[in-house]
Amino acid sequence: MRFMMIVKASKESEAGMLPTEQQLAEMAEYNEQLAKAGVMLAGEGLTASSKGARVRYAGSKRTVIDGPFAETKELIAGFWLIQVKSWEEAIEWAKRVPFEEGEVEIRQVFELEDFGSGEAVQHHAQLRDQITKRSVKA
C-alpha cells in the first residue's frame, strides 16, 4: 500500500524560511530510517506558494491564479511517498517525523487495480510501465 504523508505549510515555510542546519540533519536521519526500512519511494520539500500557481477549470475555460495563497492551513510544504503494509504502519512512520510543531496529513494512494480492469486502466498501466522504464534509465 502506498501512502502520501503531506507536510502542511506554516507561516515560516510560506515566508520562504529554510530549515535550520539541525532541522535538516534531523530530517536526513528520518529519511535514512525510511530508506533503510525500504519504505521511502520519494520525499521532497516545496517552495512557498508565492512561487506557485493554480489552474482553475470551469468547463473548457482555464484560469491561472498566481500565488501566494492566503490560507496557509490549506497549503502543502512537502511530502513523502511511502510504501508500507498497512494504514497502521503509515501512521507509525508519520508519528516519527521529527517536527516540534506542525501537521502531517496521511492519504492512501489509489492503485490501478482499485479501478477494475477496463481498457482505460490498461492504458494507464502501459503508461506507468513506460515511465518506470524511463526513470530506471535516468
Quick overview of this protein structure:
The chain has four helices and six strands, in the order E-H-H-E-E-E-E-H-E-H.
What can you see in these coordinates?
The chain is α+β, with helices and mostly antiparallel strands and 138 residues long. The chain contains 4 helices and 6 strands. The two termini are 25 Å apart. The model has no long low-confidence stretch (mean pLDDT 93).
Defining traits:
single chain, 138 residues, alpha+beta, Alpha-Beta Plaits, four-stranded antiparallel β-sheet, two-stranded antiparallel ribbon, globular
Give the topology.
Blueprint: E1 2-8, H1 11-14, H2 21-36, E2 40-45, E3 53-58, E4 61-66, E5 76-83, H3 87-95, E6 104-108, H4 119-137
Antiparallel strand pairs: 1-5, 1-6, 2-5, 3-4
Give the strand line-up of the largest sheet: 2-5-1-6
Terminal CA distance: 25 Å
Whole-number count of domains:
1
The oligomerization state is single chain
State the CATH class.
Answer: Alpha Beta
The CATH topology = Alpha-Beta Plaits
Helix content: 25-40%
Strand content: 25-35%
Main beta sheet strand tally, sense and closure: 4 strands, antiparallel
- Total number of strands: 6
The number of helical runs is 4
CATH superfamily caption: Dimeric alpha+beta barrel
Calculate Rg over CA atoms.
Answer: 18 Å
